[in-house]
């Protein structure tokens, strides 16, 4: 039986990791909330953002956290352009086409990364990666603390944009009633592109927060997206607060499951929760019925 100190420390680290999971899920839930589709390219875009952080560090010595300031606007513009110039025109208004296009985009990005970087795993070497903060009897990872704070800040910014700005009001109007919004003069294509861009920018931030303690290879995004999808279902499709709370809960469950069952079985608890939510409350904690 583990001591209370070990259990509490595992819970703290699980919550800190869960905040970054939530940040990854935010992009997924934003796109679903407005476009009403699952973005199958989400994991591949995350992997490309992580490679961008790694490349800036190795080639130019840019700190991963500083890279966030450079890459977030770049990935917003990339996401905007991909939605506006590729996904939107190719979909021709059919949601089924969007699913196939994002799946094809995922395959293209992953194979481009494989061609450019090979299948080797890469990481960033930094003394800060192993730094810890002593809080009484607990040892807390400093990069995870930074990741937790960064995730909360980004979530607060997205919530402010969605609830307090004209752009956010336009996004919510399109999410609720696309035809009515277009009749009121809202450019639906522009709103779709902005939403997709915000989702990609959130992934760039997540990549910068992950890289000090994690590795990257062309297929790394798949593991994160599986967790992110569970978070979106748990929190409620399209809910920003739900994504954050769901991420914290999933991080907590993963940490405790890994401690009690072994690291290799740590994700069993996540998928048990996923099944239970689908059975008992399919709309999630903060989701609404269609």
From TrEMBL:
It is found in: Cell membrane. The chain crosses the membrane at residues 12-33, 40-59, 65-86, 98-118, 138-162, 191-215, 227-252, 259-280. GO terms for biological process: amino acid transport. It holds the Pfam family BPD_transp_2. Its main location: membrane. GO terms for cellular component: plasma membrane. This is Branched-chain amino acid ABC transporter permease. It comes from Rhizobium straminoryzae.
């Amino acid at each position: 039986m583990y001591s209370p100190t070990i259990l509490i420390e595992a819970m703290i680290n699980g919550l800190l990791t869960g905040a970054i999971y939530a940040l990854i899920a935010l992009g997924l839930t934003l796109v679903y909330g407005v476009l009403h589709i699952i973005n199958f390219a989400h994991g591949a875009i995350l992997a490309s953002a992580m490679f961008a952080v790694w490349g800036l560090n190795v080639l130019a010595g840019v700190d991963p956290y500083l890279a966030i300031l450079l890459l977030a606007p770049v990935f917003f513009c990339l996401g905007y352009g991909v939605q506006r110039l590729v996904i939107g025109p190719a979909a021709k208004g059919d949601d089924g086409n969007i699913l196939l296009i994002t799946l094809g985009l995922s395959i293209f990005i992953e194979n481009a990364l494989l061609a450019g970087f090979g299948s080797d795993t890469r990481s960033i070497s930094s003394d800060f990666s192993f730094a810890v903060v002593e809080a009484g009897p607990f040892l807390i990872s400093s990069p995870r603390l930074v990741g937790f704070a960064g995730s909360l800040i980004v979530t607060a910014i997205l919530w402010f944009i969605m609830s307090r700005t004209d752009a956010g009001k336009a996004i919510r109007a399109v999410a609720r009633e696309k035809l009515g919004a277009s009749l009121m003069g809202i450019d639906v294509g522009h709103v779709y592109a902005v939403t997709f861009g915000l989702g990609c920018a959130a992934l760039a931030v997540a990549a910068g927060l992950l890289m000090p303690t994690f590795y990257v290879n062309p297929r790394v995004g798949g593991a994160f997206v599986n967790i992110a999808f569970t978070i979106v279902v748990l929190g409620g499709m399209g809910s920003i607060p739900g994504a954050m709370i769901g991420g914290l809960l999933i991080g907590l469950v993963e940490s405790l499951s890994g401690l009690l069952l072994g690291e290799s079985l740590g994700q069993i608890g996540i998928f048990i929760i996923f099944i239970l939510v689908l059975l008992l409350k399919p709309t999630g904690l903060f989701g609404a019925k269609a």
